[in-house]
Amino acid sequence: MGVAIGDLNSTKSITVTHKKSHMKFQFIDAENLFGPMTLKACVKDYSDKTEHKDVFPYEVINSMNWKEILVKIEPFEYEDFKSQLKGGYSITKDQYDLYLIDFKRFTNRLEYLKYYNNNDTEIMVEPLMNLIDTFEQFNIDVLHHISIASCAYATKHYSTYFPSQFNLETNKQVYYEDFDINTDYSNPNPQAKPFVLSAGY
User: Fold this and answer.
1) Nearest Cα residue to 90 out of 107, 76, 105
2) Which residue stretches of 47-147 are H helix?
3) Which of 6, 76, 77, 198 is most buried, with most CB under 10 Å away?
C-alpha cells in the first residue's frame, strides 16, 4: 500500500499495488479534485443528476459478524441505523421507509450492500467525467494533478507559454481573445459589495 497524502485523520490518496502483477490502483479523495463540498453540492455543480443517497447501517457490521449479518434475507431494522457517531439515528423514518421499498428488489442484505456500494461510487462518475472534459479542452490531464488548484495553475501556465495551442475554436469564434491573463480584473469601486463564497446551498 502506498503512502497516504495528508495525515491519518484526513487521507487524500491511497495506492494499492498487486503483489504479483505490480499493477497499481490509486484511490483519490474527491475533495482533492472538487474541493471541500458536500456530495449534494458536487453533484449539483458538476452533473445533471440529482443526488440520491442510499442508506446502509455501517455500525452493525464488524469483522467478526459480517457473514452472519449479510446473508439474512430480511431488511435491517430501524434500530440498526442507530449511530454512535451521529449520536442518534443516521436516517429519518421517511428514509427508512424508502429503504424498505428499495430492499424488496434484493434477495438478501449482501445483494443490497453491493447495490449500495455501486450507487455510492457511481454518483461521482458523471461529475468526474465532466471535470476531466472541462480541462481536457486545455490539454490538462486532471488525474495527473493532485488538486483542482494545480489544474487551474497548469491551465494558466499553458495559456501563458503556449497561447497558440490554447485557443478554442467553435464556428470560427476564438474564446478568450480579449482576456489578458496579467490584467487585474478586480472591481476598483470601493462601494461595491465583495463576492462571498458560501459553504452550502
Assistant:
1) 76
2) 66-70, 93-103, 109-122, 125-136
3) 76
